[in-house]
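agent> Task received from the user: take the single chain below, predict its 3D structure, and emit structure tokens. No templates, no multimer pairing.
agent> Plan: (1) validate residues, (2) run structure prediction, (3) serialize to tokens, (4) report one or two observations.
agent> Step 1 OK, no nonstandard residues flagged.
tool_call: predict_structure(input=
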Amino acid sequence: MKNIAAKLVKVMEECRAIPKNGTNSFHHYKYTTSADVMEKINTALVKQNLISIVIPELINSIEVLTAKGTTEHLVTVKTDITLIDSESGEELHLCGLGSGQDGGDKAVMKAQTAAIKYAYMLSFAISS
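)
tool_result: status=success, residues=128
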């Protein structure tokens, strides 16, 4: 694991912090977008010749009643992320969990987005 570990240190160095460019106008707060995390991580991984493979797994899907009386889907997803050093073949496995709720067909995508974003942010100690 010596080769991949040295490369991951460089990824962590490059991805120390990602600004909060997103704004939730309803709840009035700023957040780090998934797109910003993915762009920063992908750029840093590619520089180190590291491959990232994400495999999502549906953990739970239920219907919930909202305060307005409508039914929405609440989904929990687990993502298994494998980082592979393309030069040495060494691998590291990361895991992330995320939940998403939506009245249409976007609950799974919201859950996957959260799971991937926070798996990377926590694993690489990224501050926002």
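agent> Step 4: summary for the user.
The longest helix spans residues 107-123.
agent> Done.
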